[in-house]
Structure formats: C-alpha cells, structure tokens
Automatic annotation (TrEMBL):
This is HTH-type transcriptional regulator MgrA. The lineage of its organism: Bacteria, Pseudomonadati, Planctomycetota, Planctomycetia, Planctomycetales. GO terms for molecular function: DNA-binding transcription factor activity. Residues 20-153 form the HTH marR-type domain. It comes from Gimesia algae. GO terms for biological process: response to stress. It comes from the Bacteria.
Amino acid sequence: MSHSKLQHEIKKKQPFDSLEQAAILNILRTSDVFHNQFGRLFREYGLTPSQYNVLRILRGEGKPMPSLEIASRMVQVVPAITGLLDRLQAQELVKRNRCTEDRRVVYIEITAKALKLLKEVDKPDLDLHRKLIGHLSSAELTELSRLLEKARTSLKSVE
C-alpha cells in the first residue's frame, strides 16, 4: 500500500493495514475537521451542533414534534435528548407541551426567537458548507454522497 496524504498528516510511520482502514480513518479525520468548523460557527450564535440540528428539524417539520421523533432524526445520535432539550428551553428556543392523550409523550415546539436565530445562521452555515467542499464538482459531490450512503448500508446488516 502506498504512502498516503493521511498517513503523512497523522505522522503514521507504517502503511495502513488495509484500504478499508485508510478509507475509514480518512472519513473520521474529515468528519473531525468539519465538525470543529461547524462547532466554531454555531458557538458564535450560542449553539452546539446538536442544538442547531434540533432547531433545523423543528423548523423543517413546521409543527411541534415528539422528543423521541426528533432524536431519531438527528444527524449525530444524542444519548441525552432530554438534557439537550432542557438547554434549548432555558435559552427560550423551544417550548415543551405534554400530550393530553398520552402524558408520557412530550411535544417540542420551536419558538419565534429560535426561528429568528436560524435565519441569522442560514447564510453563514451555507457559506461554510461551500468553503469546506465547494471546490468539488457537482459530479464529485453526488458521487461522494452516493459512496458514503453505500458505505453506511453495510451497517443495516450489523445492527
């Protein structure tokens, strides 16, 4: 296996054990770089990436949603959705409403304050997406998404 850019970046003396290992480590390294960039952007608006994700889900749905449904749609799995929602509620970005038919179900509603905040973040967020991978062609972006989705399909049989 040849000397890769990643191998040089992480100062790994020996070649990777397999192409699969090199590819996964490349994905993880890229994810870390991107996550740090988005984390920095969202911090400027008083949000974490997970909080931003919750607000985007609620805005996209356009109506209150059960908290477990929000959790199931998250880009990154959040083990403590209740704590995340507590922090959003403390910032007055969401409201909680208990379901009258089933008291165990809690509906989460986005506030006007959160919608205003998202509107402020929209352009910088889009700009950061473009800064990070806008140098790839439409065909490359399509292929990258296709390959990443294909890679995740192997998990269906493992879970």
